[in-house]
Amino acid sequence: MKDQKIELVVFDMAGTTVDEDNVVYKTLRNAINKAGYDYSLNFVLEHGAGKEKKQAIIDILAQDDINDIPLAEAIFSDFKVMLKKAYDELAVTTYKDTEQLFCNLKDKGIKVALNTGYDAKTANLLIDKLGWKVGEHIDMLVTASDVEHGRPGPDMINLVMENLGIKDSSSVIKVGDSIIDIEEGKNANCGYSIGVTTGAHTREQLQTANPDYIFDSLKELESIL
């Protein structure tokens, strides 16, 4: 590992630390297809994973040269209603060893933050279902609705650093399951941008973003610290 003290690890949520069986992207696909389309889950993941969800809808439709903002907004409104119902019925779990990894990092004096392309309401519902608390299990949660520009921009990571008193971005690691997570880490000038294969994108897809590492589980992160 580079000769740099790590002060903070920023983890993505769904597909990285939170296993919710892709319910968000399945619901996103259903909401778009309800409007008259026929996209596969893989297509939705390829073009929408990790993004703020209205932007994901816009970008997915744009693959077919559909540039209709009112349509995207209508689908997004439908999606939020459908997602609330799906989450009310969902049993959310975390990936194996995630909570222990958080504890181990904190024992080393490394802060732990979560960031996500979800809005604050959805993200908080997830961590409530897991029983995670800010100040106990994690040091901060930041969501797409907390910043002006979502991924791949660096705003969420910059906000975490500002609030947790981290001055040097090279002391930060970003970990996520999608290409846009890796791009976000690079745009924030993180010391390391790491992909994990447990979620949206395959190892081959993640490799196109040139991450510093690709792991098959979060536990592998400890091997480089």
Automatic annotation (TrEMBL):
This is Phosphonatase-like hydrolase. InterPro entries: HAD-like_hydrolase_sf, HAD-like_sf, HAD-SF_hydro_IA, HAD_2, HAD_sf, PGP-like_dom2, PhnX-like. It comes from Zhouia spongiae. NCBIfam families: HAD-SF-IA-v1, PhnX-like. Coiled coil: none annotated. It comes from the Bacteria.
